[in-house]
Amino acid sequence: MIVWLNGAFGVGKTTTVRELQQLIPGSRVFDPEDIGTLLRDRLLRPGSPARPDGSADYQDLVAWRRLVPDALAALHAELGEDVLLIVPMALHRQDYRDEMFGALASRCIDVHHVVLHAEETVLRKRIEHDGAEPGARERRLAHLDVYTAALPWLRDDAAFVDTAELTPRQAAEQVRSLVCAGTARVPIVQDAVASGDTVAAAVLLFDEADRVLLVDPVYKPGWEFPGGVVETGEAPTAAAVREAAEELGLTLHADGLRLLVVDWEPKRGPRSGGLRLVFDGGVLDPAEQAALTLPAAELRGWRFVPADQWDAHLAPNKASRLRAALAARAAGAVAYLEAGHPR
Q1: Which residues pair with 125 in a beta bridge?
Q2: Closest Cα partner for 13 from 135, 109, 118, 110?
Q3: CB of 172 within 8 A of CB of 16?
Q4: Number of C-beta neighbours around residue 84 at 10 A
Q5: Quick one: 327 and 228 in the same domain?
Q6: In this predicted structure, what is the pLDDT of residue 270?
Q7: CATH code of 162's domain
Q8: Comparing C-alpha atoms, which of 343, 306, 256, 215 is closest to residue 334?
Q9: Predicted confidence band at 44 (pLDDT cuts at 50, 70, 90)?
Q10: What is the DSSP string of 299-328?
């Protein structure tokens, strides 16, 4: 089990963790900043070609977001499932949260997400009097804007402990109570990531304005088409129907689906590649739209997206796949792609 202790600079993560360790005997602390420091020293040096965008934030490194879940999984296996791992780390980008928590969920590791919170005026006062070097103090103050912008999604995702009037011991006691009660446990689907190539079936659904329905997974960054991996012995159309029912509460029929795209996708990162089939599921009327329901452990939202917003929601290969599917739909044809490009 992992307790991810989130929060802004100055909120008291370090002192709370110290008390939490005393309250939970045998618990261990893992600080992802150690991996960040290593990567920053190796990859973020001035002029380093490994960081072409010039960013100095190690959380922006794909390597950091992959190594931290890998290290936590290794510690989980080494220390045993009964040992609580406490992770004090500010994590204020939702897509990074999805990527990392999803990687842990795929290993069947529970994450309890707790945000230590205080109002901005309290945090500013603490940071200004914490004795840090002026440069570090200014960076911490500037980071408060990032935390404030993240609060809407953090409140939906995590349990909050307001530390403004609490001692570190009292804050730790509240965190322990949340963990023991299961209140802070992140509801996220714990499906293992396939190691080999797979066949996946997606279904395109439209509204009256021909906008495309996309869904927002909680276990990985970015938006997706409704759909999923075809199970052993299952027809792709049956998989599309099943996924529409599981993800949206929508009843489709296999004989009402029309194949639009076959796309061979190469393996990218930890996720497998394989064949991606896209079917036309037709237009949803207002009543069908109003009846859509989502599994909270898998999807946090859905929306109809117009063409000018596809690139903002989808990875480049998926945006290319969508455009090819819409062209095939208009032409009454089937498109074959490799890595999102027509062949």
Answers
A1: none
A2: 118
A3: yes
A4: 20
A5: yes
A6: 65
A7: 3.40.50.300
A8: 343
A9: low
A10: EEEEEEE-GGGHHHHS-HHHHHHHHHHHHH
Domain range for 129 is 2-181
Structure tokens at 184: 């802070």
Structure tokens at 196: 């080999």
User: Cα(274)–Cα(229) distance, rounded to whole angstroms?
Assistant: 10
Rounded CA-CA distance 226/205 in Å is: 9
The strand pair at 2-7 and 274-283 is best described as unpaired
- What CA–CA distance (Å, rounded) separates 231 from 229? 6
In a domain, 187, yes or no: no
Which of 181, 207, 235 is the last residue before a domain boundary?
Answer: 181
Q: In what order do the strands lie in the sheet with 85-88?
A: 28-29, 85-88, 2-7, 111-117, 159-162
From 181, 206, 225, give the residue that closes a domain.
Answer: 181
Distance CA 343, CA 341 (A): 6
Tokens (6 digits) for 47:
């002029």
At residue 49 the predicted structure's pLDDT band, cuts being 50, 70 and 90, is very low
Helix (H, G, I), strand (E, B) or coil at 68: helix
